[in-house]
């Protein structure tokens, strides 16, 4: 099969399109013919060695955890899916090596769900990691109907899905973003505020009594700037500032594969309550360029590779 791989830790310049053996399909797994694979910042951070202290990485490394495709083969006791099923998933195994930037990927059934019929292949590939991150962060802080949640980096891949999920749950959403993304956030159902100096004052103008929960999808001191806005200590979750979240009595969230949560996201999509803005689509061979765009940190929504 064709795949984008690294021979050692490196940068976008080290990515190569290579021929590798087809993946083995273990019991409880299926083999997926990849249609699209989303790019996430964690992909190039993992490849640069940033996660080496906490995650085993084996080479050659095929990056990518987000996939949408068609089941081509089922392993022993993988009864949840059949050949020909259209699926999507966050294919994270016990170590990183055989990822989604390839023509084929083997995936444990616990990481997959049926693809939402309402989404394109590219949109479906953009859901799993970002959507699960947002969904599980909202569950961790317990956002409910009628509550107000502040979402940092609301126009990004995780934030834009978090806005829609929170709105679907009946919450009021205030989202931080640059001014160029304010119209986009309003379309998603959020009330935008510009980040930077004076952020807390701008949020208080919209919510004088404070907010019920804060979701931090950017880091960069966002928790410290706004945790005093919380009505109740502890209802804060961050994926980028674990220490800040914990000091505020909240949660440091690292997304987990979950077929159940993926199915819930698929249901939201097919009910018209969740969509994915695909900012850039590039062919698999241009994965290095996709990483360079991701590293600029200005993406609205998702970057997706087509296979």
Description:
With 307 residues, this protein is an alpha/beta fold. The chain folds into two domains: 2-127 and 276-306, Medium-chain alcohol dehydrogenases, catalytic domain (Quinone Oxidoreductase, Chain A, domain 1, Alpha-Beta Complex); 130-252, Medium-chain alcohol dehydrogenases, catalytic domain (Quinone Oxidoreductase, Chain A, domain 1), CATH 3.90.180. The protein has ten helices and 17 strands. It has helices spanning 41-47, 121-125, 128-141, 157-168, 182-188, 199-206, 222-226, 242-247, 259-270, 287-295; strands at 2-6, 16-19, 29-39, 57-62, 66-74, 86-90, 96-98, 104-108, 112-114, 148-152, 172-177, 191-194, 213-216, 236-238, 251-252, 278-283, 302-306. Strands 3, 5, 6, 8, 9, 16 and 17 form a seven-stranded mixed sheet that branches. β13, α7 (222-226) and β14 form a beta-alpha-beta unit. The mean pLDDT is 96.
**What is the number of strand segments?**
17
Q: Which class best fits the helix and strand makeup?
A: alpha/beta
The major pleated sheet works out as: 7 strands, mixed
The helix count comes to 10
Helicity level, as a percent range?
25-40%
Mean pLDDT: 96
**What is the 3D shape?**
globular
Provide the succession of SSEs: EEEHEEEEEEHHEHEHEHEHEHEHEHE
Pfam families: ADH_N, ADH_zinc_N_2
Protein name: NADPH:quinone reductase
GO molecular function: oxidoreductase activity
Organism: Streptomyces indicus
């Amino acid at each position: 099969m064709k795949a984008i791989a690294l021979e050692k830790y490196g940068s976008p310049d080290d990515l190569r399109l290579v021929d590798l053996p087809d993946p083995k399909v273990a019991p409880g797994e299926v083999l997926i013919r990849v249609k699209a694979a989303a790019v996430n910042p964690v992909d190039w951070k993992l490849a640069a060695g940033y996660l080496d202290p906490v995650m085993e990485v084996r080479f050659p490394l095929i990056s990518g955890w987000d996939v949408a495709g068609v089941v081509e083969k089922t392993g022993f006791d993988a009864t949840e899916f059949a050949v020909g099923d259209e699926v999507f998933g966050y294919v994270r195994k016990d170590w990183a090596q055989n990822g989604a930037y390839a023509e084929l990927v083997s995936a444990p059934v616990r990481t997959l769900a049926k693809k939402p019929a309402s989404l394109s292949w590219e949109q479906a590939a953009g859901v799993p990691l970002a959507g699960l991150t947002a969904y599980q962060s909202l569950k961790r802080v317990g956002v409910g109907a009628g509550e107000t949640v502040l979402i940092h980096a609301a126009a990004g891949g995780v934030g834009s899905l978090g806005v829609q999920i929170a709105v679907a749950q009946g919450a009021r959403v205030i989202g931080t973003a640059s001014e160029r993304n304010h119209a986009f956030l309003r379309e998603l159902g959020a009330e935008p505020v510009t980040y930077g100096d004076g952020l807390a004052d701008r949020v208080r103008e919209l919510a004088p009594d404070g907010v019920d929960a804060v979701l931090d999808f950017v880091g960069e001191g966002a928790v410290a700037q706004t945790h005093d806005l919380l009505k109740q200590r502890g209802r804060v979750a961050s994926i980028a500032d674990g220490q800040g979240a914990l000091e505020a009595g909240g949660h440091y969230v690292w997304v987990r594969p979950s077929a159940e949560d993926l199915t819930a996201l698929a249901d939201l999509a097919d009910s018209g309550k969740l969509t994915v803005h695909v900012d850039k689509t590039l062919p698999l061979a241009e994965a290095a360029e996709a990483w360079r765009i991701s590293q600029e940190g200005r993406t609205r929504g998702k970057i997706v590779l087509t296979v």
